[in-house]
Design brief:
heterodimer, A: mainly alpha, two-stranded antiparallel sheet, 5 strands, elongated, B: Diaminopimelate Epimerase, Chain A, domain 1, five-stranded parallel sheet, single-stranded DNA binding (chain B)
């Protein structure tokens, strides 16, 4: 999967906005949205929120986990634990990037939030690499990792599976050395 | 109704127009209005674009072009075509003002237009003949005869009145249209529009600031108007940018901030070295007379007076010692007053976003102008325009930096040309005006085949000349400047600029003067520019044109 595809899926998440226009309920294939009234918060998918924000038709309200205190707690917890801790949203990385790129003026202390999320991401990726490393070393057959988000899986997924394939081929080539003697006759 | 129709944007080639265009484009994008953008550099291009597109579009928006001529006569549009004109050129043609249906002018309410009253210029034709038929009945021949005499008297009175009225009308129109000047920046008018629609953003405010600064850099508006407009923009700036003082909830560093600054008047000084900037800004160069040896010495004294070591001053501004940079503005101001430069500081705005990017409004103006008038051809005609337009967006920093480099080259070229003109006494008095002509083969002369660059050169030259000459009368004269435009076709470009005085009202009479001189000598001229005081001329006709101009203005 491409990271862009993962981001596309992330854009379906709901976020709160405060519109400055009014519109009746709109009926889309995925569901109904609205009605929109100026000044009243309404929940919409992220893709619509970003579009409206770019057209200056709304103000974005950051999700409640996007707060400096909470993110600090999450980051510290992630650093303490050896395994992966649950994340506030299965798409935390994509949402942070989208919201901070397009609506950083609606998010207080945006720079600190960006740093905290990046720290958390780095810690989790380090754990992932460590776990993959020990998996290969000990030649395990299967592993179970909880609380990984799709973006993280996607980042290592392709590499890991292809690397394991190569290693399997290399290992498989080691063994037939003994049985090939039979063909010399 | 705009949602269903497409709009054609015709934009003139100056920075104010570019900024206004950017604001309008942003507004169109918000509301999903489809538009087509056509840059035009002169009347011919305007007409061509109009003829090409008139069947497909009903709505035309003209930015910084079209207000000072009779649009309906020149373009001959159909009755259902609507023009929106946002133009800082004044005086606005009276037909455009009084037309109710097809021409909509976007002008700020308090802009003083001084338009003559309707009755003074237009007159219904029917008043004439009404009374004559009313008295055909009459019983007695003597009565009839008396009445006939009365009628004749009335008619002659009316004819005399009409002649007087027409003479007065010609006078009024002549006074009204004699001088060209500029009104409020189109970018500011567009920003007002956005504000009224509550769609104004910090980005648009910045473009309005750049538009206003362009008018100031090109000396198109009076100092008082500039200060008033800065005041207006300052209120908007505080409204948009007050969150920066609040530490708790301050904005991300990547957000764009605008700050009001009482900054130095030195061109591009933060992107250059202080020394270069002092040498290449017209104000300092003219006041210190840097084309002479004494001038150079005075510059050294000036720097010594401020305690700035030469080595520091000649390196890139950002690498100067912090201790020197801290009080730089106040120090320079103090020393400058000692050396006769009282106005070295000017009220302006600067923008910053990210950690590295800080630009002053005049930096952007210089960069965009040089991008737009870049003589290196990189593709079809409009590439330069589009590049300059793009450089105004924050995302295109590489174009902006390219523009800054080009601007430095341009400023250096201007200063060197000015120095050589003054030193070789190329500026001569022709009686009612000063005249200077750039020869082919002068270094960088190709740069000055473009109108805005030539105007900048002329203004700087006039400033320097006024500082260098001892002749009191010459100091008050306007300047006419020519430069070769196209060597193959044998044309020169000629600009006329008003005299350089403290309280100049920046009104320029050369537009009309050029027209009359061209008529009377049958010179082959091209009055293609939206500014009437810039024309193209065949080199052979130059001398007779000048003679006509001299006799016209004496």
């Amino acid at each position: 999967m491409e990271p862009a595809e993962v981001e596309f899926l992330a854009e379906k998440e709901l976020v709160t906005i405060v519109p400055n226009f009014s519109l009746d309920r709109i009926h889309l294939i995925g569901g109904d949205l609205g009605p929109f009234n100026p000044g009243l918060p309404v929940e919409v998918p992220v893709w619509l929120a970003i579009n409206l924000k770019q057209r200056q038709k709304c103000r974005l309200i950051p999700p409640e986990w996007m707060d400096v205190g909470k993110l600090e707690e999450i980051r510290d917890r992630e650093r303490k634990e050896d395994t992966f801790t649950p994340m506030p949203s299965p798409y935390y990385m994509e949402l942070t990037k989208l919201l901070l790129n397009y609506a950083s003026d609606n998010i207080p202390r945006a720079d600190e939030i960006r740093t905290l999320v990046k720290d958390t991401w780095d810690t989790r990726m380090a754990k992932l690499r460590l776990s993959a490393d020990s998996f290969v070393r000990q030649q395990e057959v299967h592993a179970k990792l909880d609380n990984l988000t799709l973006m993280e899986i996607n980042t290592t997924g392709t590499f890991l599976t292809q690397a394991l394939d190569h290693m399997y081929k290399l290992r498989a080539n080691l063994q037939p050395g003994e049985s090939s003697h039979s063909q010399d006759f | 109704l705009l949602f269903l129709q497409r709009v054609l944007l015709l934009v003139a080639s100056d920075v104010d127009a570019l900024c206004a265009c950017k604001i309008l484009q942003a507004l169109f994008q918000c509301d999903h209005v489809q538009y087509t953008l056509v840059p035009v550099a002169g009347w011919q291009e305007l007409e061509t674009a109009f003829l090409e597109h008139k069947d497909q579009f009903k709505y035309f928006v003209l930015i910084n072009c079209g207000a000072n001529v009779d649009l309906l006569e020149i373009l001959q549009p159909e009755d259902d075509i609507l023009f929106f004109v946002c133009d800082s050129h004044r005086p606005i043609n009276v037909v455009n003002v009084y037309n109710d249906t097809q021409i909509k002018l976007l002008v700020k309410q308090d802009d003083d237009l001084d338009v003559p009253a309707y009755d003074d210029i237009f007159r219904d034709e029917e008043d004439e003949e009404e009374d004559s038929e009313a008295e055909s009945e009459g019983s007695e021949p003597s009565e009839k005869r008396r009445r006939f005499e009365e009628e004749v008297i009335e008619r002659t009175m009316k004819r005399r009145q009409r002649r007087e009225w027409e003479a007065r009308r010609r006078e009024i129109l002549f006074d009204y249209e004699q001088y060209e000047y500029h009104g409020t920046s189109s970018a500011m008018v567009m920003f007002d529009l956005a504000w009224i629609m509550s769609k104004d953003l910090n980005d648009m405010l910045w473009w309005a600031i750049v538009g206003l600064t362009d008018q100031w850099v090109q000396d198109k508006i009076t100092q008082m108007k500039y200060v008033t407009d800065i005041g207006i923009l300052q209120r908007h700036v505080s409204r948009h940018n007050h969150r920066n003082e609040d530490e708790e909830n301050s904005l991300s560093i990547d957000c764009m901030r605008i700050a009001f600054e009482y900054d130095l008047r030195l061109a591009l000084y933060q992107h250059w070295s202080l020394y270069e900037s002092l040498c290449n800004t017209s104000y300092t160069s003219a006041s210190l007379k840097l084309w002479s040896v004494q001038g150079q010495k005075r510059l050294q004294e000036f720097l010594a007076d401020m305690g700035l070591p030469l080595k520091q001053v000649k390196q890139k501004f950002n690498s100067m010692d912090m201790s020197l940079k801290e009080n730089l503005r106040e120090m320079i101001e103090e020393s400058a007053t000692k050396f006769g430069m009282k106005d070295l500081r000017v009220q302006t705005f600067s923008i910053h976003f990210g950690f590295k990017n800080k630009f002053s409004a005049s930096d952007i103006v210089y960069a965009t102008t040089s991008l737009m008038e870049n003589i290196e051809k990189e593709g079809p005609e409009t590439t330069n325009f589009i590049k300059a337009l793009d450089s105004l967006s924050r995302g295109n920093l590489d174009k902006l930096h390219q523009g800054l480099d080009l601007a430095k080259k341009q400023l250096r070229a201007i200063q060197q040309t000015v120095a050589s003109c003054i030193c070789t006494n190329l500026v001569i008095s022709q009686g009612p005006f000063l005249y200077c002509s750039l020869m082919e083969g002068t270094p960088d002369v190709k740069l000055f085949s473009k109108p805005v660059s030539l105007c900048l050169l002329s203004k700087y030259l006039l400033k320097s000349f006024v500082c260098s000459t001892k002749n009191k009368r010459c100091k008050l004269l306007p300047l006419v400047m020519t430069a070769p435009m196209d060597v193959e076709q044998g044309t020169v470009i000629m600009v006329g600029i008003p005299p350089e005085t403290e309280s100049s009202d920046k009104k320029n009479f050369f537009g009309r003067a050029f027209e009359k001189a061209a008529e009377s000598t049958n010179s082959r001229t091209l009055h293609n520019h939206f500014e009437m005081s810039i024309i193209e001329l065949k080199t052979e006709d130059r001398s007779k044109f000048l003679d006509a101009l001299i006799s016209l203005l004496s």
